[in-house]
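Z., the sequence and structure:
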Amino acid sequence: MATVTIMPSGKTVEAAEGISLLQAILSAEEAITHKCEGQAQCGSCHIFIHEGRKGVSKIAREENEKLDSIVGIGSKSRLACQAKVLGTENIKIELLGFSSGL
């Protein structure tokens, strides 16, 4: 289990190993756009991981390709639907909303 802190609200949620950050965000009753239902096709669930990047899965090719097409990405960028919780450390994320450009 890992604690996921969701900014800017500051809500926290316990996330089991293997679930996506999207699932954790939704379980905390936070609003996040996810148009493709977790298929790494739309990029609408673009988030920043501020702390605990080693506590999530590595970026796969499909996610990397989608991130390359999004305006405003950085080294902390991930798609919430693709980043899986490893349970090794706590994670602090930032929801971007409309600032992801989608």
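DSSP finds two helices and five strands in the chain. The chain has a mean pLDDT of 91.

Let me know what you think.
H.
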